[in-house]
Design brief:
It is a single chain. The protein has one domain. The chain contains one helix and two strands; from the N terminus they run ββα. It is rod-shaped. The N and C termini lie far apart (78 Å). It is mainly alpha-helical and 83 residues long. It binds zinc ion (ZN). Zinc ion binds next to loops.
């Protein structure tokens, strides 16, 4: 089962023209190339989202560290005031 490249309606494999919009469908070779390109794009997107996730994790860790430092400073200040 494929999809029309023009309107996105589902079509049977091997259909040359879309029965919904009449758009000509690419041949198998082109479809195979498009699938490979789509897979490459998916891999790149995956890599980028991994990088983004890592950056977010690093940022969260930094924020946590900062909050911990602020918390420590506040506690330290209170202890100093008490003395
Ligand atoms: Zn169509």
């Amino acid at each position: 089962m494929g999809f029309c490249v023009t309107c996105g309606q589902s079509l049977q494999d091997g259909t040359r023209f879309c029965r919904f919009c009449g758009g000509q469908q690419p041949g198998e070779q082109l479809l195979a190339r498009l699938r490979i390109e789509a897979e490459q794009i998916r891999q790149i997107a995956l890599m980028m989202s991994n990088q983004q996730a890592m950056q977010q994790a690093e940022y969260a860790a930094r924020m946590q560290q900062q909050q911990q430092q602020q918390f420590n400073q506040q506690n330290f200040g209170q202890q100093q005031r008490r003395w």
